[in-house]
Design goal:
Two copies of one chain form a homodimer.
Chain A (H helix, E strand, L loop, with lengths): L3 H13 L7 E5 L6 E3 H15 L9 H10 L4 H4 L7 H5 L1 H13 L4 H16 L3 H20 L3 H6 L3 H7 L1 H5 L2 H16 L6
Antiparallel strand pairs in A: 1-2
Chain lengths: 197, 197
């Protein structure tokens, strides 16, 4: 018999994070009926990571990568989404997200709180191969989603191909396979004239 | 340099499965503004699996469980969602989903097509500990989501506590920890009078 309080806290956290489904990003779904939310972005990222894993030169632990991916944006439940090109929002992003992490993860029993906090910090620090892959996939899914949705977010927010190349540099350079995938997508973006400049 | 056709096929599949975000389930989000979709359900299931894993008596491989979870409902992109209590829809569910699996997974290079098909079949067969855990979590997330959303789907579809106990029997009996979690949720459902009968 497990301590009821322990299970109640886990369940409470699992209920709180239902709100992840209501954190909308600037990106659109392919058919552009609405913005994509964090839960959808996260699931899609996990699928990118899973299906591109065998193409990499770098050896990564996919289990650990998936854990980092599944939890990497949870802090946005309290801190909101801060798009990569939002210069003002990015000024205090770190501070806002740190506060959010403490508030959110404290709802879990201590061992799980520490575990999930460590995963989030590892993703943010972007040093281990798994964190670097997870972060590259974060950028890649986002970039691909914009291509799939005819660049609507880029058009609305004045994002040029050049700006996106800067934002995606580390992701593009993470591994030759990702470089190639990004180039395929850039080619499609150019062919479909998704950038005005 | 990876074969461009191979990467193009993977990308095409990753674009196709964007539609997963538009397959709506009968369950509602906690605040009941709308139904939950398959991508959200899948991400949430992965979080349930991750956070309850250490409470289990059964030893499971979490990496493999996550792979089964991430891909278990993809066939619904072509076959649609069939709620557990939809007797008519469940008559030809297996046949519809098998056709959908062939159509959908064939978009991938052969090795990945076979891999993802095997994961899906393993989940469906529900024999390995990972498939049994993934399936139990599928039922648990769905049940919890109904509790979180004040039983609105149950009310709309005439699902009684008794009916839900039948549907969730295998999930409840998978492991003592899950039995306990389900009982906590049933207690809450009764306290909040979510079932009329």
């Amino acid at each position: 018999m497990i301590d009821t309080l322990r299970l109640t806290r886990i369940l409470h956290f699992l209920e709180t994070i239902d709100r992840f489904k209501l954190i909308y990003r600037v990106n659109y779904l392919s058919e552009q009926s609405r913005h994509e939310n964090d839960a959808e972005h996260t699931w899609h990222m996990a699928m990118f990571a899973l299906l591109l894993q065998n193409e990499l030169d770098v050896v990564i632990d996919i289990e650990h990568t998936l854990k980092l991916i599944l939890t990497h944006d949870l802090v946005e439940i309290y801190a909101g989404d801060t798009p990569a090109f939002d210069a003002v929002g990015n000024l205090d992003k770190e501070e806002r997200e740190e506060r959010a992490a403490h508030l959110l993860f404290a709802q879990l029993p201590e061992d799980l709180r520490d575990q999930i906090y460590d995963w989030w910090k590892e993703f943010e620090a972007c040093k281990t191969p798994e964190a670097r892959y997870a972060r590259a996939v974060d950028k890649l899914q986002s970039f691909a989603q914009n291509i799939f949705s005819q660049g609507r977010n880029w058009c609305e927010n004045g994002i040029t191909a050049e700006k996106s190349r800067v934002i995606n540099r580390a992701a593009r350079e993470f591994d030759p396979a990702l470089t190639q995938v990004f180039e395929l997508l850039y080619k499609r973006g150019i062919d479909e004239q998704l950038w005005s400049e």
